[in-house]
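Tip: read the tokens left to right.
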């Protein structure tokens, strides 16, 4: 029941979590680890006789299974999956799939088997179904703390992606396995028929979760498209989708459908829905709405994650479990879990590398094996174990739930405080914190532009008398030193890797510009969704080839990507489920070539403005000339193709050409309003009124 003290406790803990965020940066601890530590300290501090009257209310905020499972978990899953790049995920599907499904099953069975045979040696008789239940609980990984460290210390992007993908999908696998084993444990029987039934239930949960996730994402996709102009409605719809998919899955499991008993994984359904909405719905939003949406979902996930970890610390400190009696089983369990994780990682990654399906470097395997922190999901799952769970042959003085809680807490704390504190040194030791060469080149180019801009601004302030002579000399000298260092870095990269890497870097800059203006064309309704996705797919493919150092020439007619299976699936959904009509071919061609011409022209204009903005060139001159020549050819070629389409279908397209002119004029008006908003001349409301009055 919600009381005034529990509400006070909730917001007090949020305030403490906010302070902990800044403290974590100062003491250089992972944020989640610090939250658990604070949670552990809150209980004994609040129980002091002198402080109990003032802080005793913190005990009213209890970490319940319902709160975790139905409120916090959906948004945490949704935020991770929504921001996952599905193309990158598919590219690494072998490693992600193997680790999240096969690896988790191997780890769960290894943990269960090892503990079943080891526990009797230390005086603890535990049935196999209980150790298997624990294996399902503890085998899922929590990426939050690890990924924060990966980002801070510059771990390879692909390694971070594999880790995040595994953590995302093994959540669903772990919960599905847990539910199956819990059903077996509750039934009190474990034989061949029960095993077959359990496997069927497991597969049903996986498949059912995927199907429901796809269906509900299609429904919300249509709703988001209709409301895309209003960021408040869009954010509300997405928050609803995260929880509604989750709760609908649980409702179907409980009540069935048309008399049929269903088994659907709510986590997998939510993951699938979030993946497709993040990759195939957010492009329908305006840049302003997308930015607002990203920040809102990230904020909600931050709140949920903060509360989960600080409440977990409070829960751990408040448990009525005699850890003194169980210290040896807990210690043994920690070692077994760590060893099982390492064995499961090597068991799936070595064959992948041997078969050349996906090559995982040895240092990556070690980090994947060691950097497997347990966190929010393990806490959530273990709290789902019924307090009155009875197991045949159970002889211990405490309940199965109490034992599972003690073991899970020990493993969570061990991974957070031991593994979490050692990941950063391992990253440095294995040399995984080195910035890729292409990123170094890209940062050098953009850094040159940044420093030249600062020098120009400094000179202007000096001319206007805003900076004293002594200050100007010091600042000028400092900027000159940074500029020389950046130029030296660029020369070093050229010497070691050739000018090719700077061509790739400039391609990346141009593609970023193209994507920006392509989104603008789509938001202004100057291209259809089909054309938008086609051109965007080409730009994405070009970027991937550049990042893989495979990019050669820009070929506007070469677009065929074997990894577009999800794009094709989405097209089927749009055509059949959403009854989306196919584009009028001449019109689609016109939009396609016109879009290509415009974004190429915009890229050329942007690069020219950067290159000649100051007395010194930003980009290496011959590299700039080579890339701009290609883009100019690209622009001319697209313009010629557009003219051919117009000449061939002049009568059919006459009306649309006039409409395009009107849309282009309207887009100029939007840019004018954005200009006024950015400078505080017009508010959101007044800008909208001006558009309505003069459109």
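Filled-in amino acids:
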């Amino acid at each position: 029941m919600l009381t005034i003290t529990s509400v006070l406790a909730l917001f007090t803990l949020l305030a403490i979590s906010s302070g902990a965020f800044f403290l974590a940066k100062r003491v250089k601890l992972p944020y989640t680890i610090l939250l658990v530590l604070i949670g552990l300290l809150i209980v004994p501090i609040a129980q002091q006789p002198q402080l109990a009257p003032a802080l005793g209310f913190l005990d009213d905020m209890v970490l319940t299974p319902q709160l975790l499972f139905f409120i916090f978990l959906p948004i945490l899953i949704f935020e991770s999956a929504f921001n996952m790049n599905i193309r990158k995920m598919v590219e690494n599907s072998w490693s992600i799939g193997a680790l999240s499904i096969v690896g988790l099953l191997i780890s769960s069975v290894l943990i269960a088997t090892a503990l079943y045979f080891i526990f009797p040696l230390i005086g603890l008789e535990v049935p196999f179904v209980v150790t298997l239940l624990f294996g399902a609980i503890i085998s899922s990984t929590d990426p939050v703390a690890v990924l924060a460290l990966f980002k801070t210390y510059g771990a390879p992007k692909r390694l971070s992606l594999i880790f995040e993908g595994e953590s995302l999908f093994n959540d669903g696998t772990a919960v599905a396995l847990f539910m199956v084993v819990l059903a077996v444990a509750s039934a009190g029987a474990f034989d061949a028929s029960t095993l077959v039934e359990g496997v069927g239930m497991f597969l049903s949960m996986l498949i059912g979760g995927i199907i429901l996730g796809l269906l509900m994402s299609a429904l919300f996709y249509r709703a988001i498209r209709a409301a895309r102009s209003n960021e408040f409605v869009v954010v509300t719809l997405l928050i609803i989708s995260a929880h509604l998919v989750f709760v609908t899955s649980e409702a179907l499991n409980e009540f069935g459908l048309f008399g049929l008993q269903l088994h659907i994984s709510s986590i997998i359904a939510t993951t699938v829905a979030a993946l497709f909405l993040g990759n195939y719905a957010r492009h329908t939003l305006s840049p302003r709405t997308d930015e607002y949406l990203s920040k809102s979902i990230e904020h909600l996930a931050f709140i949920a994650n903060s509360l989960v970890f600080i409440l977990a610390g409070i829960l751990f400190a408040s448990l009525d479990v005699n850890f003194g009696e169980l210290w040896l089983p807990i210690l043994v369990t920690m070692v077994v879990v760590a060893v099982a994780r390492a064995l499961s990682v090597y068991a799936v990654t070595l064959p992948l590398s041997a078969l050349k399906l996906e090559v995982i470097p040895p240092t990556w395997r070690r980090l994947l094996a060691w950097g497997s922190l347990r966190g929010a999901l393990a806490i959530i799952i273990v709290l789902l174990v019924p307090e009155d769970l009875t197991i045949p042959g159970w002889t211990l003085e405490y309940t199965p739930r109490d034992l599972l809680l003690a073991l899970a807490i020990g493993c969570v704390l061990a991974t957070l405080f031991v593994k979490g504190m050692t990941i950063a040194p391992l990253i440095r030791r294995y040399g995984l914190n080195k910035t890729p060469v292409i990123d170094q080149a890209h940062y050098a180019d953009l850094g040159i532009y940044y420093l030249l801009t600062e020098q120009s601004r400094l000179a202007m302030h000096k001319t206007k008398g805003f900076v004293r002579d002594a200050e100007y000399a010091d600042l000028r000298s400092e900027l000159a030193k940074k500029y020389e260092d950046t130029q030296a870095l660029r020369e070093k990269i050229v010497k070691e890797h050739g000018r090719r890497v700077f061509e790739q870097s400039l391609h990346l800059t141009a593609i970023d510009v193209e994507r920006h203006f392509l989104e603008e064309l789509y938001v202004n309704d100057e291209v259809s969704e089909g054309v938008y996705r086609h051109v965007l797919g080409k730009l994405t493919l070009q970027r991937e080839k550049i990042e893989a150092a495979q990019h050669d020439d820009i070929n506007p007619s070469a677009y065929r990507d074997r990894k577009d299976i999800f794009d094709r699936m989405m097209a089927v959904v749009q055509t059949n489920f959403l009854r989306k009509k196919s584009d009028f071919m001449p019109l689609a061609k016109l939009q396609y070539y016109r879009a290509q011409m415009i974004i190429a022209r915009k890229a050329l204009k942007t690069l020219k403005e950067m290159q000649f903005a100051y007395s010194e060139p930003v980009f290496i001159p011959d590299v700039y000339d080579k890339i701009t020549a290609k883009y100019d050819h690209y622009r001319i070629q697209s313009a010629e193709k557009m003219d051919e389409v117009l000449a061939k279908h002049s009568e059919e397209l006459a009306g649309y050409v006039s409409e395009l002119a009107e849309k282009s004029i309207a887009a100029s008006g939007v840019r004018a309003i954005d200009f006024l908003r950015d400078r505080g001349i017009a508010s959101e409301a007044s800008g909208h009124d001006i558009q309505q009055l003069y459109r």
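DSSP finds 26 helices and no strands in the chain. The chain has a mean pLDDT of 82.
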